Amino acid sequence: MRSSRSSIPLILALAAAVLMAARPAPGADPRLEAAKREGKVTWYTSVALTTAERIAKLFESAFGVPVAVNRTGSQRVLQRVLQEAQAGIKVVDVIQTSDAGHFVLLKSKGLLARYIPAGTEGFPAAFKDRDGSYLGWRATLSVIAYNPKLVPAAEAPRSWKDLLQPKWKGKLVKAHPGYSGIIATGMLALVKEFSWDYFRQLAKNGPMIVQSANDPAQVVASGERPVAADGAEYFLYSQRKKGNPLAIVYPAEGVPLVISPTAIARDAPHPAAARLFTDFIFTKAVQQLMADREGLYVPHPEVTYPADKPKLKDLKLLQVDAEELESRNQELKRTFAEIFGV
Amino acid sequence: MDLAAPAGSRAGPSRWLALDRSTPLWALLALVLVVLVLLPLAWLLASSLRGAEGITLRHYLTLATEPQYLQAVRYTLLLGLGVGLLSALVGAPMGWLVARTDLPGKRVIRALVLASFVTPPYLGAFAWTMLAGPNAGFLNKLFRDLTGAEGHLVNIFTTGGLIFVMFLYSYPYVFTMVANALELIPSELEEAAQMLGAGRSRTALSITLPLAAPALTGGFILGFLQALTLFGSPAILAMPAGVHTITTRIWALFQYPPRVEVAAALSLPLLLVAALLLALQRGWLGRKGYATVGGRGAARQVIPLGPWRWPALGFCLLLLALAVGFPYLILAKAAMVRAWAQPLTWENLTFQNLQFTWEYGATREALWNTLKLGILSATAGVGLATAIAYIVNRGLLRGAHVLTFLATAPIAIPGVVLAVGLFVAYTQPPLVLYGTVWILFVAYLTKEMPIGYAQADATFRGIHPELEDASRILGAGRVRALLDVTVPLARSGVVAAWCFIFIGAIRELSASILLFTSQSRVISVVIFDLKEEGHFGAIAVLGLLLLALTFLVVLGMERVAGRSILGSRE
Amino acid sequence: MAAITFRGLTKRFGVTLAVDRVDLSVAHGEFVSLLGPSGCGKTTTLRLAAGFLRPDTGEVLVDGNIVSSPEAVVPPERRRMSMIFQSYALWPHRSVFENVAYGLRLRGLPRGEIWRKVLAMLAVVQMEGLADRYPGELSGGQQQRVALARALVVEPEILLLDEPLSNLDANLREELRFEIRRLHQEFGITMLYVTHDQAEAVVTSDRIAVMQAGRIAQVGRPEEIFERPRTRFVAEFIGRTNVLPGVLRELGSLDLGPLVVRAPNAPEVRVGERAALCVRPARVRLRDAAIPEARGGELPGVVERAVYVGDAMEYLVRLAGSEHRLRALTPPDQRFRAGQAVLVALDPARSVLIPDEAG
Per the confidence metrics, is the pTM higher than 0.90? Predict the structure, then answer.
């Protein structure tokens, strides 16, 4: 917590910069005033709870507007948004998941407001939506991980295919695409590469099925299962930094890249606060913080990454576009349930 | 008699004067119960038959043709059988030991049984993943350290493990039923058998056991029903192993893309099995007269255990250690350390979990929601349950027995099923409750009605109706008589009912998990969310907080009632 | 005008007919008992009178005004009656004083007056010193007195009593029986008293209504009921009696089969019909057959059993040439042995002829 406090002045300075860029007016800024009048912003996100809470606190200390964080798996976020829309409940302001397909769906249902945050013109095309209904906020990889205390580096898996070896029977943990957008995206990328056969064989090793892409980190670190067959790289990275016994493998066959977009709900009850928050999370300072502290990849081109993070250009990245994710969503979940039982 | 009609009139007293003014009140309360129970069930049925083109059996066909659903049904029944048997076989002897023998430390045992009753089953299941996970589990590590063996002693992520954990939090029902029933069987019956020459064990077998049989079968059925309706434990223990129960299937059907109609269709077999079990129990008991059970006040002889005293105590304490001792110890450890699987060292110690739990915005809000809902639903539930029990016991409305049926019916409605019904019923006009805490309130009220009703019913049976008649004939109206006589006499029973409903609401997960929104999160849902991301420390903190909170409230209420809520007498 | 009247009162519980077309009038200040075995409908009748139950047909009238009918019922609290319950129904959470004072409080009397009246009433039932006790601390008889005091202190016009003495032991029962009678005379309250104990009914009542299977079998003064029962049921229920069934061959002569006995005249029985002669054991005379003394109408018999019952001897005598057995009570000094031949005298003036419903 100490470090977050020290970054507050920086964030405040930065917030001012955001506002200046949007409308260089002296005195009270009308957008900030509107956001304050609305009183709060409700954020549905799938980013790790610790990350979400940290960003929420920063925003509140910068602008005095509290953020109500609702963190759950990507698929649950979508379920919640759709259920609430159906019931006519207007609660959510900002929607953020790791399944880009969700945004194609939400856009087609007319549930998203168009908004292009200031200063994002120079972001890579892969993060952008044509119409500006959503925008990639963060990215991570779906990777293999193992516990170096239990598995010597020499014996550790190097590639996706290594996980199919019988010696990993009863040793694997795997997250659920019906919960996590990272896993859904990552699995679809591997299905496109290796076909479903790969997962049919993986199932024979009896992986323990957890829900969140962040949960394998804890399972592997505790030793309950020594190897994670997939998981969110940013979370594994930050957990390793905290001293947990974790080693990350970036297979040479290709690493799925997962881009997690954000959008503002059409029926957002606090639209001004939602826009202010969206601007905030795309500022260079926040994006840099996400890279430094949370181990995330971000769209901001000026952000620099820690030395021990692999550079994306050095990896063979496997990508799935948002439309395909959306169209194959049902197939993915049904086939997963068929193969893994849950 | 100036209040009556004029002398010689054949018209009879005027309707207004003669009408019992409290009748509309009773009718209104009965109506509330009808709406509470029947509305979600009606919607459930309607929803399961709803297709794009009108009424359809397609969803039922889906159940019959997709093997995963039949697998879930089979697995759930297997769990039910295991949990029911284990609960009856362990809970009943323990109930007997505490009710009838000179077992030492009965007070402590009762308190610890209360602790296992109060423990949410999902929290117990969660603690057991830390205790008996095959690799990182504490007990298995201990086993490897002590024996030098490889592999594991126990694996909680198995069917046996799941049955065991479900049993640990179901046996209190059997224990309580058996102990209370045995306390009410007068010893004279047993003494009569002994005079006729039956030995002590023969007496136990031929008289006591059959007399306790209703409690025993009741216990089995309660255990079975628990296993049928629990959501949290299988979600934590069975799903990682790739197995679904009916409840987790129903929950999964709510995930995107939601198939609410199939979930509704899948709810009905669960509802039917539960209803069938209860009907069987009623039918079986109905044929025999168990009038003696319920005759209070008869003196009971204490059976000396002799040399078996200490082994018996050991048996009870072992069970309680498994249900309460180990789980809370490991939770306490997890709450205090950075990594739960690492040893308790200075470097590993931290206040981070406490701090995180406290600063996490959802926690305080959820804690407040939980407490609010617990108190509200306990208060409203007790009000409704006692009113209904009163109506039935005093025969105030025609067809009052239908009310008994309605008030006890929810025991056969699993929380998830109820939630599906409520979700369908209250996400559309005229009453959109979804998105508010009120839908949870309605769910808790309905789900906990049977236990509140049973308690209230027993209370009113123990209060002679003539006590109230005496007040009325002296000039008190129905409501005044109720307040002057019945309410003060029923107080302790009512307080116990309040506690039962409160505990039930505080630990509720299976209905909440489908009905909560970001505006209406409760602690159980927050814990479940945290579990999915693997925040063990925060869960441990919340779990301990929940236990402390519940115990505080229950002990406070026990003080008010002046009695123990799990025992019929102390 | 009668204080309370039942007109064709009927009450069903499910398929059971608990009260069946009951007609009865109780005059002001009268003490009437409803007497019958358990399940005969007497308590139901009382609860109908109190307004706790609604009749299926018929009416209850108080002072000529209908207070209960199938359409509507004036609730108990507005009937100005009082009731004493079989369970006493004392409130265990209130002291003796509070129990007795309750009705007065409901009537809104000033504190001082409540105080005075309660203490006066407790004095009447001889419970002055126990006002602060709780019911749980009292004996059965004391509880009964408190129940009496609570019912009487409100000065009801009508007092309903539901087996108030049935839970007490014999001595106490007798004492309180007279106590109730005394209070009745002292306050002049109309009383309707339910009991299954004929001795209680006989001692306390101005009139008795004997009930059987929901119907009133006979109403009359105690001696009428006792001496002139109109049915076999009444005859047997009101006290042990000998019943000799037969056919009325001609007026004054009942054919028992092998023997013929003299019978009184009864307007309900016509010649040629079945009838039964009822004779109370105390009305049966016995004398030693060995002592020759010609008297008409005596029947020969044999003593089968002789029992000393304290203040009398009880004999079981078989009439010669038949299977009929009679009980006879004689003064204790008149002794016969078992097996001894005796002559039995049945005085027609002291026996009753009733239609034999059992035939």
Answer: no
